[in-house]
Amino acid sequence: MQYFHSVRLDEEKCLGCTNCIKRCPTQAIRVRDGKARIISNRCIDCGECIRVCPHHAKRAVTDPLSMMDDFRYKIALPAPTLYGQFNHLLDVDYVLTGLIDLGFDSVFEVSRAAELVSDYTRHLMRENKLKTPVISSACPAVVRLVKVRYPDLCEQVLPHLSPMQVAARMAKEEAMRETGLAKEEIGCFFITPCPAKVTDIVSPIGISKSWADGAFSIADIYKPLLEKMEQIKTPRPLSKSGIIGVSWANSGGESAALIREQYLAADGIENVITVLDQLEDERLTELDFIELNACPGGCVGGVLTVENPYVAKARIQRLRKYMPVSLNHVNGSVSPEILEWDGELEYTGGMQLSSDLVEAMRMMQEIDALEKMLPALDCGSCGAPSCRALAEDIVTGSGARLNDCIFILRKEASSLGVSLSDHPADRGRIHPTEEQNDDGKNTQ
Questions:
Q1: Which of 13, 167, 317, 381 would bridge 57 by S-S if both were Cys, CB 3.0 to 4.6 A apart?
Q2: Inter-residue contact 138 to 265 (CB < 8 Å)
């Protein structure tokens, strides 16, 4: 199976420092021969390795702004996170007008689609059509984490497309009606805060092909957009969303839109894993909805943003005061079908030892035995994130050896040194701690 990943490794910059292997939520990174290696079928493109790498050896692949030239009609899909990047912003129309001045023919706010997803989710939950606790499907990194690591939770993930995917389809269909252009002549470009969204465009979840054509990072578009915004005297009235849609940028925004008390919102990949572990253990059954964001603070904490996530969050909170509650609802003009997945979420088996249960059990026993031989320090010096991961790598034939552990290697070296000192050929030799006097005799 082919995997696309927006997170890439720059080997020239990588020093094999092991920072990334300790923070990867799916243990998808190893250090071998002094360089990091990404295990493709485990990587969820959360960008955590980009965040923690001190040498900037990890990077996200996004599209260049020049990609707009490939289309006759260009549509910008700004994530609500974009609004939190600008200081003293009291009207999002400045941002939307700036995007038009930057070269886009139109804009379609992703927050519009977010309000539709919220409205439809409220409807389904009122009719008890979803298995609770429902896990939000808005963060593609979290959905991929469930696919890779939590097979029993796949059926609890909300079977809805992310607001980005919904916005791309609605924007392109609207442009086709208004311009008469073919679908292929219209380009939809998401302005993304994170690499997971880039992956979701190339290899989407829930549909076979995305309606979005590319993704520009907020970091890349920020400076040219700011320059255009500074020249605007009177912005065009382009905004068509409200508090509910824009609040999706912050952790808890999606949950609050459901108008239910029994919900949980967690952000940051370590906290997300804690919640999913507890959910798998059936310890959170009293909840109706669980919102999970891989980035700290929500999408405002994405690695492709420019502003401190807490500053961006405060700015969006302030911006909400000047907005209506919501301007978008699922009704006769919007078909619920455009919000739904084409099929069910399937476990990919990225953490699976073997598809054969007997073989998997045998391998598990070997891993358990090897793990007992290791020091249980999980130091990462071997290039694996934990002692158990090293044992797994040995059993699965991933190129690891037991003496990759520096503690075992030290014992082997010590034993070898003792055996060499006891060798007959070594007897009579002067040891480093011995000296000779003028008569040639050894002195201690």
A1: 13
A2: no
CATH class (in words) of the domain with range 7-60: alpha beta
Residue 434 has pLDDT above 50, yes or no: no
Q: Domain residue spans in the chain?
A: 7-60, 65-339, 357-426
Domain 357-426 part of CATH 1.10.15: yes
Which tokens in the block code for residue 322? 């000047």
Match 């003028």 to its residue by tokens.
438
The radius of gyration of the chain from alpha carbons, rounded to an integer in Å, stands at 27
Which pairs with CB-CB distance under 8 Å and at least 24 residues apart come from 253-259?
Answer: 253/298, 254/114, 254/118, 254/136, 254/138, 254/291, 255/136, 255/289, 255/291, 257/114, 257/115, 257/118, 257/122, 257/326, 258/118, 258/121, 258/122, 258/125, 258/288, 258/289, 259/122
Separation CA 325–CA 304 (nearest Å): 28
Q: Is the peptide bond before 133 cis (omega within 30 degrees of 0)?
A: yes
For residues 300 and 316, the answer to whether their CB atoms sit within 8 Å is: yes
Mean pLDDT across 364-380: 93
Which pair of structure tokens corresponds to residue 10? 């720059």
